Amino acid sequence: MDSFIEHMHQSQATILSEIQQKRQQKQKMLAVLLDPDKVDPAQAEVQLHMLNAHQVDLLLVGGSLVQDQSIHQLVRELKPLAEMPIVLFPGSIHQVTEDADGILLLSLISGRNADLLIGKHVEAAPMLKASGIEVLPTGYMLIDSGKLTTVNYISHTLPIPHDKPGIAVSTALAGELLGLQLIYMDGGSGAQQAISAQMIQEVARQLSIPLIIGGGIRSKEQALIAWEAGADIIVVGSAIEQDPEGGLVQDLVEVRNKVNSLRVT
Ligand code: 1GP
Q1: Cα(94)–Cα(117) distance, rounded to whole angstroms?
Q2: Burial environment of residue 259 by CB neighbours within 10 A (0 to 12, 13 to 18, 19 or more)
Q3: What is the C-alpha to C-alpha distance for residues 3 and 41, in angstroms, rounded to an integer?
Q4: Radius of gyration of the chain measured on its C-alpha atoms
Q5: Which of 191, 192, 198, 146 is nearest to 168 (CA)?
Q6: Residue of the nearest CA to atom 2 in ligand 1?
Q7: Using CA atoms, how far apart are residues 261 and 259, in angstroms rounded to an integer?
Q8: Which residue of 66, 110, 189, 240 sits with most ligand 1 atoms within 8 Å of its CB, as the best mutation to test the pocket?
Q9: What digits encode the pLDDT tens for the residues 92-149?
């Protein structure tokens, strides 16, 4: 079977069109998040080979506190080896590197910090346009996860309460109606509690665009709950950092493949 990236190159598809197509086919995706500040550069290559071997769908790279140079070095090092698209998940505009395949252009629609809704985007737009990197316009929503996360602190915004799915639905719908192409609901890195199945379900039922869920997913059981509730892509970061042997990735991929085989029509 072709890897995601081989297929993209052969068909000249974009990352976004591949994600949309998988959603249409009810196929679930697994994204792994690497935070350049936390990845040991000597280990990154080994880890990438493990992610390639398991056919992880997407590699997200970024974080809220990334030292500016570390992301450029990491992406440059991983790009020639990666069998999946490398997509930036930037915490600041200094994290934009042309070596990546794409970038989640995040508008923090759960917050009311104008800079993160549109301000930084204005600063970054000429550079993004000139770079030729694929831009994936993404409505980013922080959901309260039981503790103050780095991204809540850094962004000066309040997350959506964990038990208020109605607010999440309205916010996600507003993002879709504004023309954003993806919605990413995030409990934040190392979230104490993952986003509830009820919230995912209610949002997924209303949305017509792909839904990404991340924050605090540490097991195949939690991944299954999120996928079954309606997540198209789940993102796992911290738990994989703590699993250098790759046992968790293997478990997650097995569950993804099983769910996907049951959904083939
Ligand atoms: C964080 O959604 C990502 O922004 C991943 O979260 O590190 O808790 O897996 P974790």
Answers
A1: 17
A2: middle
A3: 24
A4: 17
A5: 198
A6: 214
A7: 6
A8: 189
A9: 888 889 999 999 999 999 999 999 999 999 999 999 999 999 999 999 999 999 988 8
Ligand 1 centroid to Cα of residue 217, in Å, is: 7
The one-letter amino acid at 1: M
By most ligand atoms within 8 Å of CB, the mutation choice from 35, 150, 184, 236 for ligand 1 is 236
**Tokens 């390639």 sit at which residue?**
52
- State in Å: Cα 136 to ligand 1 middle: 19
pTM of the model: 0.96
Residue nearest to atom 1 of ligand 1 (CA): 189
Task: Report phi then psi at 188, rounded to 5.
Answer: 95, 155
Mean pLDDT of the chain: 93
Tell me the mean pLDDT in the region 62-86.
Answer: 88
Element (H, E) at 224: helix 220-229
Which 8-state DSSP code applies to residue 193?
S
* Distance, CA of 131 to CA of 143 (rounded, Å): 32
Atom number in ligand 1 closest to CA 218: 9
CA 226 to CA 198: how far, in whole Å?
10
Top pLDDT among 5 and 218 is at: 218
Other CB atoms within a 10 A radius of the CB of residue 257 amount to 14
Residue 159 DSSP code? P
CB-defined site of ligand 1, < 6 Å:
33, 186, 188-191, 214-217, 235-239
Closest atom, ligand 1, to C-alpha of 215: 6
